[in-house]
Structure formats: structure tokens, C-alpha cells
Description:
heterodimer, A: 79 residues, mainly beta, CATH 2.40.50.100, four-stranded antiparallel beta sheet, 8 strands, 0% helix, B: 472 residues, alpha+beta, Rossmann fold, Dna Ligase, domain 1, D-amino Acid Aminotransferase, Chain A, domain 1, 3 domains, eight-stranded antiparallel beta sheet, 16 helices, 33% helix, globular, biotin carboxylase activity (chain B), ATP binding (chain B), biotin (chain B)
Amino acid sequence: MAKTIQAPLPGTFYRAAAPGEPAFKSEGDAVAVGDTIGLIEVMKSFTPVVAEEAGRLLAFHVENEDAVMAGQPLYDLDA
Amino acid sequence: MAITSIFIANRGEIAVRVIRAARELGLRTVQAVSAADGDMLAARLADATALVGPAHATKSYLNKEAVVRAALESGCDAVHPGYGFLSENADFAEMVEAAGLVFIGPKPETIRQMGDKARARQQAQAAGVPTVPGTEGVVADLDTARVEAARIGYPVMIKAAAGGGGRGIRVARDEAELTTLFPQASGEARAAFGDGGLYLERFIGRARHIEVQVLGDGERAVHLFERECSLQRRRQKVWEEAPAACLTNEQRIALCLSAVRLAERVSYRGAGTLEYLFDDATGEFFFIEMNTRIQVEHPVTEMVTGVDLVRAMIRVAMGEKLALRQQDIVLRGHAVEARICAEDPAADFRPSPGTVTGLTLPGGFGVRFDTLLYAGYTVPPFYDSLLGKLIAHDDSRAAAIVRLDRALGELVVEGLPTTAPLHRALAADPAVQAGTVHTRWLEEWLAAAPLAVPLAAAPLAASASPTLVTPA
């Protein structure tokens, strides 16, 4: 069943650890509990977005380096 | 060159500061804004705003092309870069000038020269400014290292030439340790970086961060005395003062004149700061780098000298010669600045953006608050956490700290935690009051006596004096 995971924090969303590095997750990838999905930068400090639920990543709602607000849809998971 | 209108290529409290100086000079201001900053205080105060891109700074405030285009399209004839962002980007300064605009700051070549640590060190040495003693290149072998270390003076740092960010550094207190550590360090450097090259540098265990403010017009330079910024966390300054109370008057004069020599040698134009390490144990000072821009902590200098630095840098950019002579600049009293940030000191300084639901500002004699805050403002999560700088000025250092604490007690920011409780605890700390601090002091103090949860709510008396042994 597909469900939408929300951003836990407001900030800037990153899909990779650094520019040029591979993305943590791509659409279609399997997600295990504890996997890093991306990073959110809040005032120059980086917090990993960690999966609390396993499944298959269906789609991102937010592009790399986009602004997100807390509670905004981040990605869809087929749990 | 005549200036009628300044484009402010920055945000936050420094943008507000520049708008105020510009307005007092009768100049129009256009404020750069990202998509997330349309309602910031500087945008409200400026005569006009210009969108430079989306929230992410690399696409807005750091986007050189977008900033120059916005400055031209908004009819400005000058650009003030503030601090951070593009303020020390020589390519940006060149683009601004190539577009026929005045860059309010040094010449691009000066930014490039002083931004290169090796070139800046050479210029300093040529101007007779002391630099941290060390080898000029890689040390060939242990025998050479012994000779060089004796010349430099123990303790020495053994650094991997290919290392960086503090990696591959060892400290030898004497020749016996050097003899043991040098071959180890070389082997480790070869394994870690593929290059066993090492160089040596004097290790300063208890250093203070002292910096000298200068103003130049491209020919002549003056100093506006020094600041001490030893209280730092993660290499970020937390609390700054002017002057540096630890210096004797002789040391002060030698330090400040060395800064003028270097500024004049590089034909410095505008406001700049020369950073030094001061070794308490020996009384020596060593130039480390120059910041070719206005700095966050400039207000403490303004308070003790009475010189408006931002106005002065705009006037020099307009082509005026420095109106100040060195003998006109005198120290009056002492000023202390607390950086108020949107961070929770009771939760490991977690960033805390959010909406300011209520605000009471401090005031009164000798108190200045340079801030981006207003009631109802939502502090965005995309940028630096600095909310404002609370500055207290009084006749003496002790009185200035009392005044700062009084003002901190008046400041109420509702809706988000700030670092104000940290500053109240610092103001009450015996080591801070005695001024016996160094650049690692604050992190050691926080590790030994973390700001407990009650601090945020407790009155000063209850939060005072964390149980920490004062460093000698």
C-alpha cells in the first residue's frame, strides 16, 4: 500500500551526501528501516532523513536542493 | 565615482546595517531577496527589492550572474556584499566592476591575493608582520626536522603536507618526542594521503584570537584598534570584545601598527580585518589571515572608536580619501558583543528556525542591538542562524559585561529558543569576567558543564558558575 512520508524538519533537501556523489536512494529502490533517504540542511547543520518503515521507494515529491517545510510530502513508499 | 543607489547583495542583520548607513548618506537601497526572504526586515526597510533566485543560497545570494543582473536591472550603481556569501569572491568583484558598478570593498586583486594563505603570509613577512614560525616547505628528513624544530621553538606541530582540516597533525614537546613522532607521522601520511611529506609549525597551546580592524583608501590605511574573539564554538565566534583586555599598551601598539603596515603594503581599500593568534605564554602575536570585508563583530569597534565603519567603507568606495587620521582615532571604554542565534543551547545548539510570536527588545544607555528580528517574522531554515548581535558599551570591561547581562535580561524572543541563556551564563562566569580564556576554552567549558535544561528558564543567580576549573 502506498503511503506518503513527510519531511520531519524544515530546510533544504539533498538526495546525495555531496554534489557529484550517487543519490542515497532512487525511485524504485528498496528501502529498509534505518536507511538514509536524504539529508535536510537546517541553518547549515545537516540531519539525515532515516526510513522508519521498509518498502519500495515510489517517487520523490521534492527535488535535490529544494526547500521543504516540516510536514511537507517528501516521498512515497510502497510499504 | 558618484554613487546614488546601492544594491545589497546579502541578507539578515548585515543587510539592515548597510541600509541604515546608506540611508544616512542619502543613498537609495535595493535589497537582494531570495524566494524565501521577501518578508525579511531588510526587504521591508529598503527602498526596493529584487528577486535573485530560489531559497537555496547557491541559486540566489551566491549566484554571481543573477546578483549582477539584478543590480543592473534595478538601476543601482554600487554593490555592497556584506559578509559571507560573495563578499570575498574576487571573481564576483571583477564581474561587478566589469558591469560598470562600484564594488564596495577592496580591489579584486587584493581579495585574490589576501584570500590565498601562502601569498598573504608572504606579504605579511615582507611587511615585517610576524607569522606563525614554521618551515617554508616540506622537511627532508629527521635530521633537518631536528634543526628546524630548534629554530622554530618547541612545542612544534608536525603536519602532513597532503593533509587538511586538522588531519595528520601531531604535537612534539621536545626533541625526544620529535624523534619518535616524525617517522611515525611520515609513515602515516604516506598511508593516508599517498604522500609522506611533512612540515613543522610552532604549536600554540593557549592561543587567543585577536584581530585588528583597518580602513584604507587604496593609499593610506589606519587601524581602529583590535578585538578579541577567543570565545568560539566549532570555529564560530560566539562573543567578541574591543579592545583586547589581555594586551599591554606596548603590545597593542605593536600589533595595530603591524596591521597598518600590511594594509598599506597591499594598497588596501575599504574595511578589513587582520586576524592574529596571540600566545599568552610568550606575549607573541602571529598574523594568520586577512578578511577583506566588513565583519560580523564590527560594532564593538564602532562603539569604542565612534567610527561608523560601514559608512566609511561606502565613502571610500565613492572615491573619497580617508577623512580619519590615525591620531583622531582613540579608544573609549570597552564593548562586548553577544551573538544571538536561533539555536537551542540546552539541546546541543540544535538549530531552531520558526516564527517569532512575541519580541521584547533591550535598550537603554550603551546598548545596541543589530538584529533582523521583528514580531511575527518567520526565521527561515535555509541560512545562517544569526538573529542579531547584542552590544554593550561602558567605561570598563567589567561594567560592559554587567550592562550586557542587564540587556540580555531584557531580551525576550518568544516562539523559538535562542542562545541568549548561554550568554547570560558566560557573563556570570568567573573566567569570562577575569578574561582568562583562549580559543578552546568555550568548548571545554561546555563539555565540562553543559547548559542544563533549567538554564533556559532559571534566573541568572541560579544558572551562574558552572562547576568548571578555570584554565590557568
